Here is the input.
Amino acid sequence: MKLASQLDKLGTETAFAVSAAAAEWAAKGHKVYPFHLGDINIPTPANIVEATVKAIADGYTGYCAGAGIAELRAELAADVGSKRGVHYSAEHVSIQPGGKPVIGKFLAAVMDPGDEVLYPNPGYPIYESQIEYQGGVAVPYGYIETESGFDLDMKAIRHSITPRTKVLIYNNYQNPTGAQSTRQEMEALAQIAIEHDLWVMSDDAYHEMRYSGEPLCIVNLPGMYERTVILYTCSKRFAMTGWRCGAAIGPKAVIDVINKFNTNAESCTTHFIQRAMVGAIQSDTSGPDAILAELRRRRDAAVAGLNNIDGISIAAPESTFYLFPNVTKIMARKGLTDVNDLMRGALTEANVSFCTRKHFGRPVARETQQFIRLAYSGIDVPAIHAGLAALKGYFEA
Here is the structure.
């Protein structure tokens, strides 16, 4: 029996393979310093846990509306809209079992086979996977490394537009680079979307993970509200990675289609988790504030540790919980040409596990620099110090 040929176009999240290798190395008795996966080892705020237990006890364990319960849709509409300077109502919100389902459902709603989709690369690998699996043409755009971080390669974006371009995927506060757009850069990107009449998915998974200043979202720029769908997730803001609760938020016409996909795919998102999130969004600020404060401490420790390694210089990003250092000099010193060999050596020689640029979309031919990604969301400060000291020994050998 033969499986569907279309499966050849379905990618995966290869960071989980790095996690498996780290687990296998740990099972052999080694201490592993886990910088590989963007999971969060900070407890979910107690008020959310308590509200969930109460919702279960109160009997919210059956089916609910495929679009999500009305109370949570209304709360998210108000919360997300007010923080981005736009107005949403419940009809603009579709509750999802996590943020990731928004990617595939959004593309299925707006993209026809053969349409071209601009997406960030390096970037979250599921963009590339879903575009190609659903018959679209994945067109990557990249970033330019600067002394302060990473800027969008606006020239490359403009040159990538063709008459077949239909969709732009945009991840401000970006995984894996930690890049954040200035208002000027965001306005330039919005102008491109308007000029070429593009649908936009704004991946806002890290919108609240900003250490200073007010976060920006492309949806509140002129002409963007009616063409933008926001990917929202509870995973980062509330340390709820395994709870699987998120939302698609945007124009009603697209949200209505996504709601239909919900009914076909999972029926509904877990009822009692939705009930718990209503109160969390209404009243909770101390939990997310504490999570962000802890992540800031980890960021500062990780940036200092990396900058203490000969051959690495990295600025402290003001968002996300990722660092994306350039390791080209390290690899030259060690005589390596494949960044994944550096990753494997770090695990076996220093007990440090991280991902590389190759885990975030297919590298394009013009790339000459080598990067790795370290996530500090799943490792506490003492382990960061110890792990990066061990990494220094391996990188400088």
Q: What stands out?
A: The two ends are 52 Å apart (CA to CA). The longest strand covers residues 165-170.
